[in-house]
Amino acid sequence: MNELKITSKFTVYNDNSELSKQDNALFLKAIEARNSAYAPYSQFSVGASLLLDNGTIIKGNNQENAAYPSGMCAERVAIWSAASQYPNSKILKIFIAASSSVKKVDSPVSPCGACRQTIAEYEFKQSKDIEIFFSGETGKIVKANSLKELLPFTFNNSLL
Ligand code: THU
Predict the structure, then answer these.
(1) In CATH, which superfamily holds the domain spanning 20-150?
(2) Ligand 1 atom nearest 62 alpha carbon
(3) Residue (of 118, 151, 136, 158) closest to 12 by Cα position
């Protein structure tokens, strides 16, 4: 029997002034998306912006529903929008920004499990890592160079 230890690596930015110009532009798009989220039930707004390899930026935000499970996260709205409009383009980066009207979101909000699995699908499909940035309303911004940092032992179609 062996013990397997898996470590993850992240870059932590103190705030957006430490981002590159391109990454900061993507951050501003995530905030723009977050500000038009439809989150009347949780009051928790999330925006996601994607940079594609053709230079296009795609935005998405969470869309809630009175029948709660029918709602959808920002990341999947953005990813599926990109995948449906630009099926042959690769996703280079995703930026996630969250805020709440009932509490201070001052630490980075990482993607939920289902969104991680969805990002995994496209990272595997395109054979290219996706940079994932995540942030709250204030505070630090975290970057993972690949979904694999967030979801080790990823289930993908090579196992089917
Ligand atoms: N939410 C996202 O949009 N992305 C995540 O990764 C976590 C959660 C949304 C879903 C729901 O509308 C609200 O945040 C509260 O869970």
Answers:
(1) Cytidine Deaminase, domain 2 (3.40.140.10)
(2) 3
(3) 136
